[in-house]
């Protein structure tokens, strides 16, 4: 039997230009092993857009939604590889819409535009 040996370490550090300008660290990341044997790895990394006022919050929104989506999709799935093969464009668009909706809600709470929560996403699911 193949034993997985995934380990993950991540850290975020406030950049010197952010320190000088009083901006928070705008990075977010997560790694989670799921499945009955912990043999599925879901990970995400986001860097907030430095010119966006709430990029730190945007990065958190992106990472949290990626992790929640794929964890709920695969956690108790009998065949995660097959489920991932079935993941299509509409599924991805649904995830992006969920992220956008949460970003819009945050923007409304802060009385600003959704662009102030801009962030990138690098996500992966390994089985």
Descriptive account of the structure:
This protein is an alpha+beta fold and 127 residues long. It has four helices and three strands. It has a three-stranded antiparallel β-sheet with strand order 1-2-3, with helices on one face. A hairpin with a 5-residue loop joins strand 1 and strand 2. The protein is flat, with a radius of gyration of 16 Å. The chain starts with 15 loop residues before the first helix and ends with a strand. The mean pLDDT is 88.
The helix-strand sequence is: HEEHHHE
Summed over residues and divided by their number, the pLDDT gives a mean of 88
Quaternary structure: single chain
SS class: alpha+beta
Q: Count of DSSP helices?
A: 4
Uncertain spans, ≥5 residues at pLDDT below 50?
none
Apparent shape: flat
Strand order of the largest sheet: 1-2-3
Rg from C-alpha positions?
Answer: 16 Å
Tell me roughly what share of residues is in helical segments. 40-55%
Bin the strand percentage: 15-25%
Instruction: Report the span from N to C terminus.
Output: 14 Å
Question: Sheet bearing the most strands, described?
Answer: 3 strands, antiparallel
Strand runs, count: 3
Task: Summarize the SSE layout with pairings.
Layout: H1 16-21, E1 27-34, E2 40-47, H2 55-74, H3 80-86, H4 89-109, E3 122-126
Antiparallel strand pairs: 1-2, 2-3
Q: Any descriptors?
A:
alpha+beta, 127 residues, 3-stranded antiparallel β-sheet, flat
Briefly, what is this?
The chain is α+β, with helices and mostly antiparallel strands and 127 residues long. The chain contains four helices and three strands; from the N terminus they run H-E-E-H-H-H-E.
